[in-house]
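Open question from group meeting: does this chain pack into something compact, or does most of it stay loose? Before anyone orders reagents, we agreed to write out a predicted structure and look at it together. Recording both the input and the output here so the notebook holds the full record.
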Amino acid sequence: GLGKELRLANKGAADIVRDKAKTLAPVVSGALRQSIGSKASQRSAAVKAGTAARVPYAAAVIWGHNPRPQGGFTEPNSFLIEAIGYEYEEIKSIYDKRVAKLAKDNL
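Structure tokens returned:
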């Protein structure tokens, strides 16, 4: 049905961005990269990195932090946003195929 197709399209797009983000994420211990995950519903798709308990520094890595308690600052690393840009055509293709399938099956 419509809801299932929309969820599958959103999940497919989120998974592509998740996989690319994992290749772009900065790695020291690997915890940030391992924390990158995707989820989707029929209304939305999301890719998230970090958790408060396991990777509390994720927001500082992604958005930057100024000033840090030990001095200096952290430059933002926009690897999640860059992942969308790198995979834009594939994401668009997923939605095009799913919408075409919906139209064919329901119109």
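Observations to bring back to the group:
Residues 24 and 79 are 6 Å apart (CA to CA).
Strands lie at 37-40, 45-48.
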